[in-house]
Structures are given as C-alpha cells and as structure tokens.
Amino acid sequence: MFRTLLVCFLIASPVTLWAKDTLPEKFTLDGHVLIYDTETEIKGSDAEMTNDDIEALRTVLSSHPDVTELRLNSSGGSVYAGEEMAWIVIDFGLDTVVAGECVSACIDVFLAGDRRRMMLGSKIGFHQRSWSSNSVKKYYDSWKEDEAWDSPFDFGSWIYADTQSEIYEHLAYLVERGVDPGFAIETLRVESGGEWYPSRLKMIAAGVLRESPVAN
C-alpha cells in the first residue's frame, strides 16, 4: 500500500511542479483567483504590461478553467496589450478586482470584468494616452514606405486622424462597459504625466465599480 502511494506521489508531483513553474512570472494563482501583478521585480522582462502578457493570459486561463476572477495590480504599459487582454477577460466571463493600483492600460482590463471591485486602500487612476517622440520616430521610419508617407507632414496628418479614431473607440468601450458617458469624458482631462484618482463613491455612481453584472 505504501509503495503504491509513493509511486502515485512521484507521478503526481512533477506534474504539479511543472504547472507551477511554467506559470508566467507576472501571474500567480490563489484558488479560483488569477493574480496579475506587473509591479513585482521580474528578471529579463519589463515591469509593466507588455504584448507578451496577452498570450500568457490566454494560456493560463485555458489551462485553469476554474479561474473566475482576475486580481490586478499594475501601473499600465502597452495600450494594445490592455485592449487585447480586456477582450480575453470578457470572453472568459471573469470578475475583476484591484488590489493595489490600476492605472492607464490596466483600466481597460479592469473594466472587462463582470463584477468589478476595488479592495480597501487600493486606487484606480485615469489619464490621457501618450506616445513618446522616440516611439513616434521609430514608427515613422518603419512604416513610411508601406504607408507612402512622403514626409513627416504626411505622417502628422495620419496621426491626427488616427488619434481621433482611437479616442472615439476608447470612449465607446468605456460606455459599452457601463461607465457613465460624462465620467468617460472626464477621464481625458489629466495629461499622461499625472493621474486622476476618483473616489470610491464617484466610481460606484459612474458604473466603474459594480457588484452585479449589467444585463446586455
């Protein structure tokens, strides 16, 4: 009997360790809760939301169908990563909760939750999106031939139109997720160098925080 139990343990243990060791560094599991924390020190990776986190989130959720809630602590990062991770959260029907801070691109992921909560002592920060001059130059250099931009002025005209489309899509997403339109507009008032941290009561009234999903 003891030998049988020992064999079962030796067979089962590597599987358990393998599942734990292969969990992406920014993710940890606590029962039915998946924790996504970009504020911890991570070797060989940016301590922010990155595009690599998109597939990591999808893989973890596919491997752990018992997960029902995503716990967030992030100061943001890639806008694209936030948008794509948000659609994954919606598709898996998860609840979301902020434990610490959720700022910038993290908010898109948070608003994807059905039930949306914020732990005591935590905060949610809003600001305008930004694009650094260095990133703008790299984008222009990489795409000017494909997009037939003859000069930086052509690129500037494209940015003007693209920015308006991006802002519209972002505001539409907030409203679609149940956020009051007036509050959604208010999220654009602070430049990217600062943060607007609304009170808990204000976010409840605006539909940012909600205990029950809103029926579609």
The amount of beta strand, in percent, is: 5-15%
Mean pLDDT: 87
Q: Structural class of the secondary elements?
A: alpha/beta
Q: What would you report as the Rg, rounded to the nearest angstrom?
A: 21 Å
Give helix % range. Answer: 40-55%
Number of helices: 8
First-residue to last-residue Cα separation:
55 Å
Characteristics:
single chain, 216 residues, alpha/beta, 8 helices, disordered N terminus
Describe the structure.
47% of the residues lie in helices and 14% in strands. It has helices spanning 2-21, 52-63, 79-92, 105-111, 133-143, 152-176, 181-186, 200-206, and strands at residues 27-30, 33-37, 69-74, 95-103, 116-118, 123-125. Strands 1, 2, 3, 4, 5 and 6 form a 6-stranded mixed beta sheet that branches. Helix 3 links the parallel strand 3 (69-74) and strand 4 (95-103). The longest helix is centred in the C-terminal third of the chain and has 25 residues, at 152-176. Residues 1-21 have low confidence and may be disordered.
How are the secondary structure elements laid out?
Elements: H1 2-21, E1 27-30, E2 33-37, H2 52-63, E3 69-74, H3 79-92, E4 95-103, H4 105-111, E5 116-118, E6 123-125, H5 133-143, H6 152-176, H7 181-186, H8 200-206
Parallel strand pairs: 2-3, 3-4, 4-5, 4-6
Antiparallel strand pairs: 1-2
